[in-house]
Amino acid sequence: MADLQGLYQDIILDHYRAKHHSGLRLPYDVEVTHVNPSCGDELVLRLSLDGTTIRDISYEAQGCSISQASTSVMTDLVIGGSTDHALALHDGFVEMLEGRGTVELDEDTYGDAIAFNGVSQFPARVKCAMLGWAALKDAITRGRS
Ligand code: ZN
User: Fold this and answer.
1) How far is the CA of 50 from the centre of ligand 1 (A)?
2) Can you name the residues that pair with 59 across neighbouring β-strands?
3) Domain ranges of the chain
4) 2-144 sits in which CATH class?
5) Does residue 64 have a pLDDT over 80?
6) Each residue's pLDDT tens digit, 118-137
7) 14 CA distance to ligand 1 centroid (A)?
8) E-state strands within 9-142
9) Residue 120, CA distances (Å) to 12, 55, 57 in order
10) Pairwise CA distance, residues 66 & 16, whole Å
């Protein structure tokens, strides 16, 4: 178990040090700003849509390693896919975070996001892991209307 946690920590630190799809880009359809005051995390996220396909997500993130790494992993999972698929992934991620260790993400579906399986045991960090996904859902909801 110690080794597994070490592996998960490495995944999170790799994404934190070299965030995927980071930086704000043009063009975009929706821009949202989400904050997590309990930790000090801040995220500006831009969503670019091509019909119901997520063409690009770009972002500027500040805050802890959990929040930044979770956002980085999220972009890997949803860019190029449909908004419905992204929302389904969002819902599964929330279910895991609220499961307090009883629900585990599946690696085939969630890739590097399985590194956050352990975060559900730490209620103070749940909002950190959730920040990017919450911003994504907000942006998709606004982009569709
Ligand atoms: Zn945080």
Assistant:
1) 31
2) 22, 45
3) 2-144
4) alpha beta
5) yes
6) 898 888 899 999 999 999 99
7) 16
8) 30-36, 41-50, 53-62
9) 15, 30, 25
10) 8
